Amino acid sequence: MMETDVLVIGAGPAGSTAAKHAALGGAQVIVIDKKSEIGSPKRCAEGVSKDGLKKLGIEPSSRWVTREATGVRMVSPNGTAVNLTEDKVKLPEAGYILERKIFDKHMAMDAARAGARIMVKTLATGMRREDDQVVVTAENMGQELEIKAKIVIAADGPESRVGRWAGLRTALAPKNMESCAQFEMAGVQMAEPDCIEFHFGSVAPGGYAWIFPKGDDIANVGLGILTTRTDKTAYQHLLEFVESNPATQNAQPVELNVGGDPVGGLLKKKVADNVLVTGDAASMVNPLTGGGIISGMLGGRIAGQVAAQAMADGDYSHKNLKVYEKLCDDELGESFKKYLKAKEYLLSLSDGELDEIADVFKDSDFETINTAEMVKKLIKISPKALLKLGKLF
Amino acid sequence: MIVNEWCMYCGECAGVCPQNLIEVREISLKINHDECKDCGICIKVCPVQALQGDD
Description:
The complex is a heterodimer of chains A (393) and B (55). Chain A has helices spanning 13-24, 50-55, 100-113, 162-165, 234-244, 293-313, 318-321, 323-347, 351-361, 371-381, 384-389; strands at 2-9, 29-32, 47-49, 65-69, 71-75, 81-85, 95-98, 117-119, 122-130, 133-140, 143-154, 177-186, 195-199, 208-213, 219-225, 252-262, 271-272, 275-277. With 393 residues, chain A is α/β, with parallel strands linked by helices. Chain A has a domain at 2-44 and 101-173 and 266-343: FAD/NAD(P)-binding domain (3-Layer(bba) Sandwich). In chain A, the strands form three sheets. In chain A, strands 1, 2, 8, 9, 10, 11, 17 and 18 form an eight-stranded mixed sheet that branches. In chain B, a hairpin with a 4-residue loop joins strand 2 (22-24) and strand 3 (29-31). By secondary structure, chain B is an alpha+beta fold. Chain B is globular, with a radius of gyration of 10 Å. Chain B has a single domain (2-52), classed as Alpha-Beta Plaits (2-Layer Sandwich), CATH 3.30.70. Chain B contains two helices and four strands. Chain A binds chain B through residues 34-36, 41, 43, 121, 123, 125, 157-161, 164-165, 171-174, 177, 179-181, 227, 233-235, 256, 258-260, 262, and chain B through 8, 10-12, 14-18, 20, 22-26, 41, 44-49. Chain B: It comes from Methanobacterium formicicum. Chain B: Residues 1-26, 27-55 form the 4Fe-4S ferredoxin-type domain. Chain B: GO terms for molecular function: oxidoreductase activity. Chain B: This is 4Fe-4S binding protein.
């Protein structure tokens, strides 16, 4: 049986960041990932904020940044666009559009350089407790293996099976799981090539559609829907969006991505004896935007640091690991609550209401308008905003 | 449960399975049929309609 201090399950950005920081903190670390190629296929629109990378201490690299996006363009159902640019407003998820297949590998390489051992094509199949440790059963190329760890960091994505093996309630109701489909396309003719673009309304029931530029005429064109709000699949909605959107009339797909995005707000119980849950598995995703790269990595960093500290303490109990929950709630949970409110408001709007709002804001000079004035304007056209968003401002 | 060949192994079904019965491998899906109660949630969320009931 293999033995280690910390076993990280899943080498996405959250898992690799957890592994890196656990190793930097002095722990012996193994990372397993079920895939033969870390980062592939991507299940992501690939946008990150500059601030986020900075906060994580990660220098942007031309190897995995495809381009910068300096603005946001929001389009209502009848095509009315509101353009926001970086110099005018602070943008939560704009900044860089990544090449995730390369980015994820580089994050895993950083974990390796910090001392973590990485095993690819290795699938965790179960978990049991032994003494005060955990034994994870896994499979690698037809070989069964067992890894005994003092701490397991579950970074196994939206499937989040590992947390449930530890008794945590990581399963998601369909209303908290955005169902997503995306083409990476060439020949995309964007109205504002420097902007990431969002389309709201019945084009993507319960979510939104996006176009994220990746340089030249390349873009990720996708959408997320709630399956509780439509009878069509995400893929069917995507085909309709691509057919009707002016930007994609001459575009061709070179890749199809699908997957779930956990948008219900931060998982409450993220800790069990010997186990920490992080990243998508703990719903570390902005519930409004669905973005989860930076937040997952911030959570992963905390998980790695807490695991290393627990190793130093020689105490892997729920009680000693529980500080992880407080730290994550402080880092992510509070802002997620606000984003969740904003999302509820957004999803309550009909196509007609969205058009009206876009019409009011389309000519606004966001450079001079402050938040209070903006809210006043919004409430005038959409009185229920006061009820749904009032407490946020 | 039938897994159609166009399944993309994204794992969204596994994330919503109330009983944690779906194991997503790199290019296969393993479902614990014995304990499945046919709630159909996995069928409904699939982005590409790759899952279907037996009947």
